[in-house]
Every structure is written in structure tokens, then in C-alpha cells.
Amino acid sequence: MSATDAGRLPAGEVRSMFDRIAPRYDLLNRTMTAGLDGRWRQAAAAAADLAAGDRALDCCTGTGDLALALADRVTRSGSVVGVDFSPSMIALARDKAARRGAPARFEVADALDLPFPDDAFDAATVAFGIRNVADLDRGLAEMARVVRPGGRVVVLEITTPARLRRFYGLWFDRVVPWLGRLLGRDGAAYSYLPASVRRFPEPPQLAARMAAAGLGEVRWRPLAAGIVALHHGRAR
Q: So what's the pLDDT on residue 43?
């Protein structure tokens, strides 16, 4: 991630930021979304179109919630791998999976250089993380590369709703950084959030970028009045 790009931080700073907020990440997510983030991740897991025995990858997994939702779908006969470039996030995800006895493992890895062979998974997902990668197109291409032909690539991401722009701006510019300072003692990290959302492509543009990355049958739908968009396509 270029330090000179408007609104961006170098990749090392982004990694350090997520390491810092990891202990309070789940609490802040639940507070900022009024508890809806779990429902959105369940929708993403459903969109992955998995069955018992399948193999799934969750990129930018954070503390592992989407990976664990995928694990419920593939059952113990399948396997799920969650990757994130933040060691602190991965440590929390491993603890969470161990407590639940879930068939998921977690590894520190960069979404721009996934350490897996071509066609290794039946689906790859990412929730609220792809906007943080330094190269969106490369990240999408890597996800497409490791999914077998016909398998799903799913992207769940915050977007800017057309009908609620004024409220949305107030929430993300004022309330979210305040919550970050209050609950996470890191307002700077949650000031980064609205900037990262603003520079992220609108849903139709993201769909086009997914198609350019080699995915077919790309579809998307808004969730929560357009606050979140759920995209999916099939690897070729």
C-alpha cells in the first residue's frame, strides 16, 4: 500500500493498527453494527455455496467469525483455512476455534500472495477486509486462483448507501471514531475506517473488477439498506 496514495497507509502500518485493536475488535464490530455483522457473515457463508466435505478459504479473516461460519457448513468432513496478515488477529481466531472445537485452522499470510496451489479450495471468502489490501485487483485474482473452476468467490464489504449518505457520513466520520476512542482507546484506527470505505469501489465497479479478475456469473446485492454489499462470482 503506497504511503503516497490519498487516504492510504503503508501495509506495515495497517498491520500494526489491526494488531493493536485485535483485543477489542469483536466488541467494536458488534457495537458499530448493532450486532448485525454476524447476520451479514452468515449471508456470506451461505453465498459460498458449500456442502459437507468441501474445502474453504477465508481471507483477511480477522478473529475468524466468517471462517467459523464456513466450518459449520463444511462440517467435520470438510476443512476451512482462515488467513490474515495480523498475528494478533490470528491468535484470537485460533483461540476461538479451539473453544468451539471447529474444523478450522488459521495461518498468518498475506492475501496478495496466498501460500496455496491453484484450485485448492471449493470457495474463498472475505468479509470487511478486501478494502484494506494494497492491491485490490491482485487480491481478487489470488482468491480466484486458489478456487477450483465452478467454485465461489464471495466478497462482503461496507459500502456507501445512496439513500442514507448524510446519516452515513455522520456515523462514520463522528460516531465511529468516538466509539473507537471510547471502547478501543484507538480513535485513529477507526478514523481510518471511513477513509477506507470512501476509496473502495461502488458495488457495480467492484463487480466489474471481480469479472476482470477472472470470475464469471458475478452478482451482488445490498444488505441493510445498502450499508453493506454482498458480491459473489464463480471461478473459471
A: 98
For the chain, which ranges sit under pLDDT 50? 1-7
Looking at residue 137, what is its pLDDT?
98
Which CATH architecture does the domain made up of 11-162+201-235 adopt?
3-Layer(aba) Sandwich (3.40)
Mean pLDDT score across all residues of the chain: 88
- Can you tell me the distance from the alpha carbon of 120 to that of 111, in angstroms, rounded to the nearest whole number? 15
pLDDT tens profile 81-111 = 999 999 999 999 999 999 999 989 999 999 9
Q: How far apart are CA 59 and CA 154, in angstroms?
A: 10
Cα 139 to Cα 69: distance, rounded to the nearest angstrom: 22
How far apart are the C-alpha atoms of 57 and 80, rounded to whole Å?
Answer: 6
Q: Widest CA span of the chain, in angstroms?
A: 47
Which three cell numbers mark 205? 465497479
In angstroms, what CA-CA distances link 189 with 14, 21, 181, 198?
9, 8, 9, 15
The answer to whether residues 86 and 34 touch, using CB atoms and an 8 Å cutoff, is: no
User: Residue 58, SS3?
Assistant: strand
